[in-house]
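Final report, closing paragraph on structural work. Over the funding period we assembled a curated collection of sequence-structure pairs, and we close with a single example.
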Amino acid sequence: MRFVLRTLIAALGLWLATELVDGIVVTSATTLVLAALLLGIVNAIIKPIAILLTLPFTLLTLGLFLLVVNAAMLGLVAAFLPGMGISGFWSAFWAAIIVS
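Its predicted structure, as stored:
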């Protein structure tokens, strides 16, 4: 039940990001839910590895580099889903802030 709730909240955040940020495109509601599911999986598996590898940058920037890591995870999700597109880094950056 908790996983379903977190997925729905992530889907709501992604929908809000598509409405507020130019450059984020999601073609359907099904793609939105799949993107939320995939984002949860990516955040559970790949994000801890990325955080560990970028730890010196994160410490040097006092944690602000984690926003870049979040944007990269969102870009990774968009690369795997055919119905989702992100036009550039800044679109992914602002969308990652909204989703998180």
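The mean pLDDT is 93. The longest strand covers residues 24-26. We thank the funder for supporting this effort.
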